[in-house]
Every structure is written in structure tokens, then in C-alpha cells.
């Protein structure tokens, strides 16, 4: 009990953010090299994060960690299911949510989305495909809105040239996650 009382909130935050930043750096490196974020990273990160949340916050901490896991993973699960995103991205985001909780997780989620958009725009400009990307995003959003209105699932892309062009613009989202985690940490630290 003496050990727990001697640990300060600051040292807990340093450990928490160290785990998240370290894992996101490893994920970015792995995604750049192999185009995958391995389960060997995400599953232990999730498991230890749940234990961490229970140890530092009890049942309420564990409940908040689970809620944050779901909140941060949902957008990436949807991207995986409907837009060809990676499952590793979704698992990493859920794991990050477990470690950061709801308040910090929402800030980081916003920063990651911003980093992802910026990375996609930079890659589209570098590949001279910005018009294609802008058109694809508009058509995708419009199709999704129509499918919500008619209660039908959108059909997958069937034109081979569209698939070939979109593959050439595929980005290693682990890099955006790492940049967003670091940016979110900076935003939270400065506030």
C-alpha cells in the first residue's frame, strides 16, 4: 500500500503516455516497413491497458477504459469494413483508448483524424491525384448518405481502374496514428 501512495499522478501520466507513444512509434515503424500493425503489439497493449485501468481506477476506471476503447475503435472498424482500412489500425486505436480514457482519447482521436487527412492530402498531391481523391471522397460520402436514407448498404467499388488508383494512394495509417498521438499529447500538455 505504501508503494501505491508514493506514486504521484504525474508519474502515472508519464507511464501512461510513455506506453501509448512508444506503442504508436512501433506501430508507425511496422506499418511503414510491412504495411501491417501486428497483433503482437496491439493485443498486449490492450491487455496491459485494461489491467492498468483496473489498477489505477478500479471498476469505474475499467468501465471508462472499455468505453474509450469502443469509442476510439468504432471509426476505424467502420473504415475496415467499408473502405478498406486496416484491422490493425482499429485494434491499435481501441488499445490507445483503453490507456487514455474518454477525455484524453477524444482529443487524440481528433488529432489522429487530422493527421490522417493531412497525410492523405500530401500523398495525393505528391502522386498528382488530388482531384481523384476529392472526387472519390465526395462520391463516397454522397453514396453513404443515400444508403442511410434508403436503408441499403452501399455496393463495393467494381471498377478495376478505381481500385488500382486507390491502392496507389494507400497510406500507412500507423504514421498518422503516431503523429496524432504525439500531437494530442502536446495539446493536452499545453492546456
Question: In summary, what is this structure?
Answer:
This protein has 191 residues and is mainly α.
The average pLDDT is 85
Computed over alpha carbons, the radius of gyration is 18 Å
Helix proportion range = over 70%
Give helix and strand order, one letter per element, not per position: HHHHHHH
Shape: globular
Strand content bin: under 5%
How far the N terminus sits from the C terminus, by CA atoms, comes to 32 Å
Domains, number: 2
Return the structural class. Answer: mainly alpha
Main sheet, how many strands, which sense, barrel?
Answer: none
Q: Note poorly predicted spans.
A: 160-165
- In total, the number of strands is 0
Number of helices: 7
Notes on the structure:
The chain has two domains: 8-126 and 172-190; 128-168. Helix content is 86%, strand content 0%. The protein has seven helices and no strands. Helix 2 packs across helix 4 (87-126), helix 2 (9-34) packs antiparallel against helix 7 (173-190) and helix 3 (39-83) packs across helix 4. Residues 160-165 have low confidence and may be disordered.
